[in-house]
Task: structure prediction
Amino acid sequence: MNLLDGKKAQYYTLGCKLNFAETSTLELLLKDLGVKTAVKGEKADICIINTCTVTATADSKDRQLIHKVIKDNPDSLVVVTGCYAQLQPELIAKIKGVGIVIGAEKKHEIITAICNHFSPQATSTSPLPPPPTSHSSPCTFFPACSRGSRTRYFLKVQDGCNYFCTYCTVPLARGRSRNGSIASIIDDAKRVADEGGKEIVITGVNTGDFGRTTGETFFDLIKELDKIEGISRYRISSIEPNLLTDEIIDFCAESRAFMPHFHIPLQSGSDDVLRLMHRRYDTAFFAHKIEKIKSVIPDCFIGVDTIVGMRGETDRYFDDAYRFISSLDISQLHVFSYSERPNTKALEIPYIVPPQIKHERSQKLLSLSEQKIHDFYARFIGTKRPVLLEHTSCKNKPMHGFTDNYVKIEIPNQPQFDNHIIEVSLLGFNEKADALTAVIDN
Ligand code: SF4
Result:
């Protein structure tokens, strides 16, 4: 007898694309067992909250959401999973109304835990599952694929991280690096193609580290993915600079479907701060990577992650970083403020950057980012590029899409082009939409 058939569930996700992909997969698994997704305002039997713990603010948002979900759904089974649940299971279990707490490493056990809860033999009232047995491996890979919009899919290929950068809590929350096999990931990508998906974003915690548990390599993976005819576009969500080999860059430059677009975490443009962070490269190495990309893919969009206000980041170090980042031929910065995380090595670094200075540094890098993206977009005004047009639910609103090299464009709404790749002419800036206006070529 299927105990879940006919039940309704509601899903809540905080944090990264990986979490969203995993929530989607949980939804599909429950759907297979007859669980419908509750529409807004409808009573749900099960509420699943997938949490994040990347900053102190994320922790606080998790707690607020848990309390709100319990208040709005007093009779539901509330299941809390994800990175915050991994690091603070006892704290969450103490919240009155939480039914099950399962950390990120055990996401694959959620369905069993929910079934057990609804089983007539269920006796346990503890929100925490029994302690791990010798059979449960902390290295289990929970595959996931989600449809971010009607046009773009997020395909998880890897989880966890072995790097232990001093500011980062992710290896503690998500465990060690592990991955699915190339064969299983190819099957997932083929399913996306069968559903009519055109673009896949390859997602992981440390994506380039793919292959640790299967003896394969990220390079092998992208070569195989490129062969799937139904998929027109791939983007790599983020790849560590030391794992973005020249071989991968050359392959992407020549490939059928890998877009001229990279997202690379730099974190700091000061060698001293990179050392404090235990990052595995220096600024000279990073600069070489950018030059290499630009030499073989001149129109490539390059997004770069940076952290400001890391412990130990003195004024001089920040000035070095700013100068270095300004000098790079990159397209956009993603600026994060350092957040103190329990049990991380960075807490041993004595100099703490005052919040006001952190804020000023963040504003300075955000302005630099605006200038860089403006300069990048300006280069393509008056040119033609292929765009994957995205669905818009509102008839009177313009449509958006991204060129192959990740320039956001806006055109008048023409629903017949939804999920189509069309050549457009790029006309000029639309500052309101952070996009270029475009017309479809006849
Ligand atoms: S590479 Fe560093 S920052 Fe990225 S998840 Fe691993 S430890 Fe964290």
